[in-house]
Amino acid sequence: MTVEAPAGDTIAPSRLAPADMIRAAGIGLRTRRLRSVLSALGIMIGIGAMVAVLGLSESSKSDLLAQLDQLGTNMLQVQASTGIGLGPGELPDDAPAMITRIGPVEAVAAVADVGSARVYRSDYVPSGQTSGLNVRAVDTNLLGTLQGSMADGVFLDQASPDYPVVVLGSVAAARLGIRSLDTAISVWLGDEWFAVVGILESVDLSPDLDRAALVTVGAAETYLESDLVPSTIYVRMDPSSVDDVRNVMAATVNPENPDQVEVTRPSDALEAREAAESALTNLFLGLGAVALLVGGVGIANVMVISVLERRGEIGLRRALGATRRHISVQFLGESLLLSTIGGIGGVLMGAAVTAAYATYRGWGVLVPAVAIVGGIAAALAIGAVAGLYPAMRAARVSPTEALRTL
Amino acid sequence: MTAGIIAPERLALGLVGVTKTYDGTPPVRALVDVDLSIADGELVTIVGPSGSGKSTLLHIMGTLDRATSGTVTVAGVDIATQPDKNLAAIRSRHIGFVFQQFFLLAGETAIDNVADGLLYTGTPLSHRREHARASLDRVGLAHRSSHLATKLSGGERQRVAIARALIGSPSIVLADEPTGNLDSKTGVVIVDLLLSLNAEGTTIVVITHDRDLAQRFPRQVSILDGRIESDVADSR
Q1: In terms of Cα–Cα distance, which of A4, A1, A317 is closest to B120?
Q2: Is residue B80 part of a domain?
Q3: Which residues in chain B are closer than 8 Å to A316, comparing Cβ atoms?
Q4: What is the CATH number of the domain that holds B199?
Q5: In A155-246, at which residue ranges do the beta strands (DSSP E only) sit?
Q6: More confident residue, B135 or A154
Q7: Are B83 and A324 in contact (CB under 8 A)?
Q8: Is B143 exposed, middle or buried (0-12, 13-18, 19+ CB in 10 A)?
Q9: Could you tell me if residue B2 is inside a domain?
Q10: Is the ipTM of this complex over 0.90?
Q11: Residue A35 contacts B where some CB pair is shorter than 8 Å
């Protein structure tokens, strides 16, 4: 190899090619594998936790949005206020008709309590064993208004309104021990046998219907001799007018006592649930950040020890022509490599956890790009900070001292 | 007999009035007014007991340390006026080191350890390995090139270290107690190797505390308490 003679200031400088820099940074990792794996693991757990939390929260949110999309947020639920001095809570008889007159309203479906009638599997069941189930008389357009669906059979609108037929909520059917309608099944309701014509899927916007047996208003009047008063009214409207309708609803339903009318938006409850979950998400993100920080301290610790152990190597490299900068870059690079390995491992781990849990919950798997990019960026940042001090120490090692160490 | 005056173009390394003082109470004078000139192609041994200042002298000759006063010239450059990064550059291209403890990288093969001798010159890896193969061949270890450093015997490790020092054809090779960690038989092999490399033209300085070993080299510089006691060249 030819070496040009230096002349004064024109000494060819020491150079470390980028590829060699990466190789040099990897030497410590290759020769101390277990230690490297363990210190990368700290970062991996931190990043993994954060990615999984973000992934799960996004997956669950996207599931909720899909649910809201499907159910629609343009529904209001009207009930009588209950409380001291307000009586049993009844809406005026003509409330559904009044609501229909509000311009943007598209559909109105009323649900009425049916006095003391209860539903039993047969007439041998003691009357006290109600299984916590109610009987409700409902308008036949209820299913469409709630965007519900049938698990089996048909809804009441498909049956003759005045026949003794019943549709069971999902929980009600399970408690009565009815799984399918392949064979004709009747239940003992009031003092009559009612034929079960359908079983509902769980109704997301009104979970209390899951525990009810639904009959038509006509059937209730004919067979249950009940005085029907609407207890809940579901109202669908033009999505852009929800707030306007909500503002006039109470006064429309009960002009005399608007304060006895309670108007709620069921989709808000779902959103509130999500908000509560996102508070938890922040907590878990915080925990992930703590884990990441601890991982960073672990890397810094390992790097400081490494610098002490490798004084001989540092001395040798200085003797071979490395500048202080080459030495610090090597150790900083090693720290970055460790944290990058941890970061990539963490992203993979977080994504795997997200995929597994989301699949288990039946959600779509969604790992946000910001979690992937952010996870690796956070790992790099931690690696840079953790490696900075050890790298500076390594650069400060005096070559003459280092070469004296045995 | 004292070494004669060397023409500047043949000077591999020159020290004039070099003094090194370490701070402390009282200050330690490790080197006092040292004059030493080494010509291209010479094989010189610096011999002295421990604490005599020979390691300090080696570090100053190798530009790893700076003299408190005096002039040090390596490969035609006065190092006192050079910033640290230029000293690193001089080490990377003009000085080869051999240490008592070998200082091989444990996770690397023999050939890659040798190739590291050119690491900080910016030479691409494939070229470095090519030179390393030739260099390993010079020390008779071509057949061990793919062995990990940890799998080699002490004598083989030192030969790898010598090959690493030779790889860039440096102006001078500085060997610090090169046989210090070896049994006497292996030590003889290393000394023979240094003699034959010198015969091929390599300039070598060997530092040792071992006077018997020093007798095997053509020029012996004796050092005690930081001063050069004698500088004797055999007429062979």
Answers
A1: A317
A2: yes
A3: 97, 99, 103, 105
A4: 3.40.50.300
A5: 165-168, 186-189, 192-200, 212-216, 229-237
A6: B135
A7: no
A8: exposed
A9: no
A10: yes
A11: no
Which whole-number Å values give the CA distances from A85 to A89, A95, A254, A260, A380, in the listed order? 10, 21, 16, 10, 64
Q: Which run of H or of E encompasses B160?
A: helix B154-166
- Structural domains of chain B, count: 1
**Element counts in chain B: helices (H) and strands (E):** 7, 10
Residue A405: predicted pLDDT? 58
CA–CA distances in Å: residue B141 to residues A204, B96, B113, B144, B204: 79, 18, 13, 5, 20
pLDDT given at position A85: 60
Token pair of A35, please?
């230690």
Asked whether A124 and A160 are in contact (CB, 8 A), the reply is no
pLDDT per residue as tens digits for the range A42-52 = 999 999 999 99
Q: In terms of Cα–Cα distance, which of B155, B156, B154 is closest to B146?
A: B156
Q: Cα separations (Å) of A293 from A91, A182, B44, B92?
A: 58, 60, 56, 39
Cα–Cα distance measured from residue A152 to residue A198, given in angstroms and rounded to the nearest whole number:
5
Q: Quote the domain boundaries for residue B118.
A: 8-233
The Cα A134–Cα A176 span in angstroms is 12
| Contact predicate A342/A393, CB 8 Å | no
- CA–CA separation, A113 and A232 (whole Å): 9
DSSP 8-class letter at A153: E
* Residue A381 Cα to chain centre, angstroms: 28
Which of these, B78, B75, B76, lies nearest to B67 by C-alpha position?
Answer: B78
- How many residues are present in chain A? 406
| Residue B3 domain flag | no
Q: Say if residues B87 and A391 touch (Cβ distance below 8 Å).
A: no
**For residues B141 and B156, is the Cβ–Cβ distance under 8 A?**
yes
d(CA A200, CA B146) in angstroms, rounded, equals 74
Which pairing describes strands B43-47 and B219-224: parallel, antiparallel, or unpaired?
A: parallel
Tell whether the model's pLDDT for residue A2 goes beyond 50.
Answer: no
A315 shares contact with chain B (CB less than 8 Å): yes
* Beta strands in A158-228, from DSSP E residues, in sequence order: 165-168, 186-189, 192-200, 212-216
User: Is residue B56 a part of any domain in this protein?
Assistant: yes
For chain A, say whether B102 makes contact (Cβ under 8 Å).
Answer: no
Closest CA to B17 of B35, B31, B4, B29: B35
- Quickly tell me which residue has 């304060």 as its tokens: A259
Q: Mean pLDDT over residues A286-304, rounded?
A: 90
Residue B169 · residue B12 · CB < 8 Å: no
Structure tokens at B54: 């020979």
Secondary-structure breakdown of chain B: helix, strand, coil percentages, each rounded to the nearest 5: 35, 30, 35
Write the single-letter amino acid at B218.
P
Picking from B66, B94, B103 by the largest number of A CB atoms within 10 A of its own CB, the best residue to mutate is: B103
Nearest CA in chain B to A12: B89
Sheet with B219-224, strands from edge to edge, namely B95-98, B172-176, B204-208, B43-47, B219-224, B227-233
Does the CB of B49 have a partner CB in chain A at under 8 Å?
Answer: no
CB A335 within 8 A of CB A384: yes
For residue A404, the chain B residues in CB contact (below 8 A) are 55
- Tens of pLDDT, residue by residue over B169-209, are 999 999 999 998 899 899 999 999 999 999 999 999 999 99
